[in-house]
Design brief:
This protein has 228 residues and is mainly alpha-helical. 73% of the residues lie in helices and 0% in strands. The protein is built from nine helices and no strands.
Length: 228
């Protein structure tokens, strides 16, 4: 469910902010800065899971991501886009935090659904490439469909599945290990590289070379397949 909303949001974002709000390089930099604030403060999950089950927090976060994505096109201004992006980012980062934690608690390696997210992203990109021009879709329609699907799947997960007990309960405190310093450093540098590329490369293709939504999505699709 998560990649459907996030991949769609990312694929349409650069064209949407340029056409709807006249963003330039500085504006898109501010947008992604705001988007990363919830990621930086995802450590707050530790406090939240002291009063809320991780499974419930994951579903609520996923629902927030879906609803915020669905409403994105209703806020075609700098302030509106920053606000709705902040909300969707809270949903994304908090969901991803507990998602990874619960996978480690619930699922052993032979049964891990490692390709599910990539498959959903692939399907989202292909659908956009094939339908954007053919059906003359609008930003609002695509965001509503993708966000609505994610929100619906979150509600289904809440209603259809019981509250599972993990065989290895989560430790509800910060754990840092000196021997993992290289891993922390590599994660930091990987995040910086990814953000520099994501923030400016796709935006440049739209702003400077006037790529349409289906064209920029095709680039995302090629990158996804190359990294599989």
């Amino acid at each position: 469910a998560m990649p459907i909303a996030f991949a769609t949001w990312a694929a349409l974002l650069n064209n949407f902010v340029i056409e709807a709000a006249g963003f330039d390089g500085s504006d898109i930099g501010w947008l992604h800065t705001v988007r990363e604030i919830p990621g930086f403060f995802a450590i707050g999950v530790i406090a939240i899971i002291m009063i809320m089950r991780e499974q419930i927090l994951g579903v609520v976060s996923l629902l927030l991501l879906g609803v915020a994505t669905a409403l994105t096109a209703y806020f075609p201004s700098m302030g509106g886009i920053l606000t709705i992006t902040m909300l969707s980012s809270i949903g994304f980062h908090y969901y991803e935090t507990v998602n990874q934690s619960l996978q480690l608690q619930w699922i052993d390696n032979p049964r891990a659904p490692i390709a599910a997210g990539s498959a959903a992203t692939f399907v989202a990109y292909v659908c956009i490439v094939l339908t954007w021009r053919a059906f003359e879709l609008s930003y609002n329609m695509v965001y509503m469909v993708a966000g609505g699907i994610t929100a619906a799947m979150a509600l289904f997960a809440f209603l259809a599945y019981p509250q599972f007990e993990a065989p290895n309960p989560q430790i509800k405190k910060m754990v840092l290990r000196k021997r993992y310093w290289l891993y922390y450093a590599l994660q930091f540098m990987a995040g910086a590289r990814r953000q520099i590329f994501v923030v400016f490369a796709a935006f440049m293709m739209v702003e400077r070379f006037e790529f349409e939504v289906d064209q920029i999505t095709s680039l995302f699709l090629i990158t996804l397949v190359a990294n599989m």
